[in-house]
Amino acid sequence: MKFNLVTILGTTAAGKTKLAVQLADYFNGEIISADSRQVYRGMDVGTGKDLSEYNFRGKQIPYHLIDIIEPSDEFDLYKFKQFFLVAFEKISAKNRLPFLVGGTGMYLSSVLQNYNLKKADFEKTRLEYSLLNDEQLRDILKKLNPSLHNTTDLNDRNRILKAIAVSKALQDEIKGAEINSYNIGIKFSREEIKTRITSRLKKRLDNEGMIDEVKLLLNSGVSYDKMIFFGLEYKFIAQYLKGELSRNDMFQKLNSAIHSFAKRQMTWFRKMEKEGVVINWIDGSDFNKAKELIEKYF
User: Fold this and answer.
1) Which has fewest Cβ within 10 Å: 15, 19, 39, 272?
2) Cβ neighbours for 271, distance < 8 A, ≥ 6 positions apart
3) Which residues contact 19 (CB under 8 A, 6 or more apart)?
4) Which CATH number belongs to the domain containing residue 222 in this structure?
């Protein structure tokens, strides 16, 4: 099979960006982010953009689908797939190698499993389910998407309906550009990934200004409810700033939530494998091993 894309995937805190930048430098590539929150401007520390890492050996590695919309705007799977295809075709036209990098399961699946996305029809979905109560809607959404990235979708009727509309828009049909991806997964032992998550969280809170970032977003007009919607760091730090959590409680709850999220990511990757996606797992973000694997095909 002729591959035209390399995908680097893994759980949060696995070191995907660092490895992808090294590989893109070596193979004359550009990076396309598959992260549902890195698309938002001003959400840097909490989403782990690590923009400084894209400057490698004095050279800027080009990246796409990062910092493209405001936090007040809506972004969904349909928009991601459209933006991805534009970036993929632009990179390929320059005879450079596209690297898809991230951990948002459904975003990755939409590319690797060739979802044909029809634009989600919210109004049709709203009318179709108008007689159902919120609990019934939650059950439908859970069946359509058992591995939700953000469970806060379940707290608001309109958000539930929008999530149902997006999930129903998925069809497993090959359409548009033919994508054949060589996939590399970064894995660590469960204990090691827990240690990495906790260590990174402490660093972001104590040294990298993550609390100030959330404060700035709130002061700039991003609503408290929208911060809750973004989940994880933005949800718990917003609750802390509002006085609903002590700093220690915020840290403990956030740390636990990120560990749970990493477990859900691995569950999604295993689901992809069961559905036929081949993932070549490597231990840690090992550049030499990843390079060796890719060199067989590129």
Assistant:
1) 15
2) 105, 147
3) 8, 186, 285, 286, 287, 290
4) 3.40.50.300
CB of 221 within 8 A of CB of 45?
no
The per-residue pLDDT for range 264-298, each reduced to its tens digit, is 999 999 999 999 999 999 999 999 999 999 999 98
Contact between 267 and 17 under an 8 Å Cβ cutoff? The reply is no
Number of domain units in the chain: 2
Q: Is the pLDDT of residue 33 over 70?
A: yes
Same domain, residue pair 43 and 142 = no
**What pTM does this model have?**
0.82
Domain hosting 147: range is 120-168
Give me the helix-helix angle, 247-274 and 232-241, nearest 10°.
160
* Residues 164 and 211 placed together within one structural domain of the fold: no
- CA–CA distance, 66 with 165 (Å, rounded to integer): 25
| Range from 127-131, 175-179, 275-279 that averages highest in pLDDT | 275-279
> Which of the listed ranges 24-38, 77-91, 107-121 does the model predict with the highest average pLDDT?
24-38
Cα 238 to its chain centre, rounded Å, is 21
Query: How many whole angstroms separate alpha carbon 237 and alpha carbon 230?
Result: 11
